[in-house]
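tl;dr need the bound structure. longer version: we got a ligand (S-adenosyl-L-homocysteine) that a collaborator sent over and nobodys looked at where it sits. i said id run it. heres the input, straight from their email, havent touched it
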Amino acid sequence: MTDYAVARQRMVAEQLVRRGIQDQRVLQAMGKVHRHLFVEEALWGRAYGDYPLPIGEKQTISQPFMVALMTEALELKDHERVLEVGTGSGYQTAILAELAGKVYSIERMRALAMRAIRRIESLGYYNVLIRVGDGSVGWKEMAPFDAILVTAGTPQVPIRLLEQLGEDGRLVVPVGQAENQVLRKGTKKGADIHWTELGNCVFVKLVGEQGWSD
Ligand code: SAH
């Protein structure tokens, strides 16, 4: 049975390297993690395509390039602690687990969280903790984080997440309208946050206290 090794290498070369992803650790992780195992079996043949895919509950697994772009922007070192808001399928979680010391991930929808936990465990990632809840307020008990990644779009930067960043911490978050957003990166320098923009993007809504209300 195929493990999609060829499809994975093509994805890395054609969708990531060609569009400017340079971080070798990120490229290696994306070449390694079996993305097809994070979608239902009927979609395995499309799992390495250049688009997001449905994962149930009206949510999506992000396009490979978007996963790579966000992960590269986090600049993770292998001992660092990272928070992901929006576990979804758990694919991005696995990529983070390849690159960081410890990954905390919060998912609002119980059914998705349970499936992601099973996948992450069966793949043998022991440095991941996933829980159900509203991640727009972060995970105070586990703060501070070296990096925080929000994988859902929000009308404004969730202030609690900025508070939970450590010194030199990086926050990557899609900010804007419901239909389209700008991917923003904030880096904490003392009391200041230095902001840059990484491009346009389309994510499902971050629904919660610091996101959208419905
Ligand atoms: N990183 C995921 C992307 C999933 S889409 C992947 O690679 O599969 C975004 C996810 O964010 C959805 O599963 C959605 O349910 C979740 N979400 C939305 N608002 C949330 C919130 N306030 N807290 C936690 N998760 C949230």
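gonna send this back to them w/ a short note. The first strand starts at residue 53 and ends at 56.
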